[in-house]
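Hey, resending since the last one bounced:
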Amino acid sequence: IEDMTSEELALKQAEEKAWNDGAFDRALEELRIKRNELLAESDWTQMMDITDTRMDNLTKGKWQTYRENLRDITDGLTTEAEVKSVTWPTKPS
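The structure tokens again:
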């Protein structure tokens, strides 16, 4: 840093600020990627052709609630700290 010109230092500080300002968006994108993977893994639970022998209505309802909670997981998040402290819903067994 001592060998930098004032212009180089200003550019470095601007780059660091831009990186830090994007932390929330990067964290939110990572959250969405994981959320989408979990939704994809549970898509089979919502297929119309799943018969009651494979899944009773109560279990299907639990999966619906789980998936709804996954879809809503980003609602109201405004800071990187909130994104990083998200509690994931428990997958039905």
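The helical segments are 6-21, 23-41, 57-71, 80-84.

Sorry for the duplicate.
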